[in-house]
Automatic annotation (TrEMBL):
Span of domain Hemerythrin-like: 11-122
Organism annotation: Streptomyces swartbergensis
Domain of life: Bacteria
Annotated protein name in UniProt: Hemerythrin
Gene3D superfamilies associated with the record: nmb1532 protein domain like
Segments passing through the bilayer: none
Lineage: Bacteria, Bacillati, Actinomycetota, Actinomycetes, Kitasatosporales
A Pfam short name: Hemerythrin
Length: 189
């Protein structure tokens, strides 16, 4: 987003940058084919898993406690995330070169981007206005710990099926992300 310096201590800037990374990965999946598309789609799945898990741990508790009508806002976002996850796992079981893959991907993209806009409007704005410095800093360090789990910017040509496989199944990515986020926020006990 223009005008926002992506300061490492700015949790909202970090979240917005991840929304941008997600959008770019959708672009990449759409414009590639075969193994390249498979690799880009793996990165998209990883980033979505990491991003949504971090939001569950970092953003949702803030919203519940600080945003007027926060419980309803959280329910709405969780519903959108559940629906996206279902579509994502359907796509995950498809051959990326199947003619049905791109229409399904586009549908996921529209859902994910509408979800991201709702977060920016109903949650991130409140974080920016109402979170104190200490809270912002602890949220930012949690986000950075989560981001370390998602290889969004691989060097071209270094990606391999083996490397992707080594990242493990999605449930494990979610678990590792949650552990890293909780540890960064000092709640791992
Ligand atoms: Fe989300
Ligand atoms: Fe998000």
């Amino acid at each position: 987003m223009a005008g926002i310096a992506a300061s490492d201590a700015d949790v909202v800037a970090l979240l917005m940058r991840q929304h941008g990374d997600i959008r770019n990965l959708f672009d990449e999946v759409e414009k590639t084919t075969g193994d390249e598309r498979r690799a880009a789609f793996r990165r998209l799945v990883q980033l979505l898993a990491v991003h949504e898990t971090a939001e569950e741990e970092v953003v949702r508790p803030f919203t519940r406690a600080n945003v007027p009508g926060g419980d309803q806002v959280v329910e709405d976002r969780l519903k959108e995330e559940r629906e996206a996850k279902e579509l994502l796992s359907r796509l995950d079981g498809m051959d990326p070169d199947d003619p049905k893959f791109l229409p399904e991907l586009l549908s996921l993209r529209l859902d994910v981007m509408a979800h991201a806009r709702a977060e920016e409007r109903y949650e991130f704005n409140h974080i920016r206005r109402h979170a104190d410095q200490a809270r912002l800093a602890s949220m930012a360090s949690a986000l950075k710990a989560a981001e370390a789990m998602a290889p969004t910017h691989p060097h071209p040509g270094t990606e391999s099926a083996a490397k992707n496989l080594a990242l493990g199944p999605l449930a494990a990515v979610v678990d590792r992300t949650r552990d890293a986020v909780r540890k960064a926020m000092g709640k791992d006990g």
